[in-house]
Amino acid sequence: MEGIKEAIAFITGLAVKAEDPKTVEINGKTYCTKDLVRYDAPEKAAPISATTLTSLVDYIKENREELRDRMIIQVVNETKVLLYSGLLAERDRETLFEVNALLPRFEYGREYDQESFLISMQSCFKESDDREAVTMLASNIVNTQEATFSDTGTTQQAVIENRNNHEGQRARTEPGKPDTVPHISGG
C-alpha cells in the first residue's frame, strides 16, 4: 500500500512539473508559478572564495568601488568568515566574500610518509623540547632493504638485511631472531 502512495505522489509531482509556467503579479512584483522565482529580482554575484583572512582584507582595501557604504563581517566559526553587503532595496544582503581557512590537522592512526609527518609535526604542535626530539628522530630515519643471494649449484644462501633505524645504524635480521633496533642513548 505504501508503494502505491509513493507512486501516486511521484506521478502527481511529474504532472505539476509538466504544467506550463504562469506569471503572477503580487504587490507589484512579478513571480513565476513554477518555483515562485521573481523575474525582476536584482541579480547577485556569487561570493568570492578564499582561504586566508589576508585575502579578505586585501579585497576590501583594493575594491572599494565594488562595495557598498556599509558592510558586515560575520565570523561564523573558527574556519569560516563572511563579508556581507549593507541592506539592499529588498531588505536582504549580498554575500560578497567567503573565507574558509585551511587549518593543518594531525590525523592520529594514519600512516604518514616522512616529509608529511615532519610538516605535520611542525604545523600542528606547539614548539617544545618533546616536539623537537620527535622531529629530530623522525628526520634521521632511513628505511631500506637489501638482499644478497648466493647459489653454488649445490647450496643456496639468502641474506636479507633491513635498515630501518636512526642515523644509519644497522639492524640485522637473522633466521629465528626478531628484528631489533639499537637503543639510542640521549646526549
Question: Could you name the key traits of this structure?
Answer:
alpha+beta; four-stranded mixed beta sheet; disordered C terminus; 187 residues
Principal-axes geometry comes out as flat
- What's the story with the biggest beta sheet? 4 strands, mixed
Number of helices: 4
Strand percentage: 25-35%
Explained architecture:
Helix 3 runs antiparallel to helix 4. The strands form three sheets. Strands 3-6-5-4 form a four-stranded mixed sheet, with helices on one face. The chain has helices at 2-18, 53-62, 114-124, 129-139, and strands spanning 23-26, 29-32, 48-50, 71-75, 80-85, 95-100, 141-151, 156-166. Mean pLDDT is 78; it is low at 167-187. It is built from four helices and eight strands; from the N terminus they run H-E-E-E-H-E-E-E-H-H-E-E. The longest helix has 17 residues, at 2-18. It is of the alpha+beta class and 187 residues long. Among the domains are: 1-32; 48-100, no CATH class; 104-142, no CATH class. Helices cover 26% and strands 27% of the residues. It is flat, with a radius of gyration of 33 Å. A hairpin with a 4-residue loop joins strand 4 (71-75) and strand 5 (80-85). Residues 163-187 are annotated as: Disordered. Residues 163-177 have a biased composition (Basic and acidic residues).
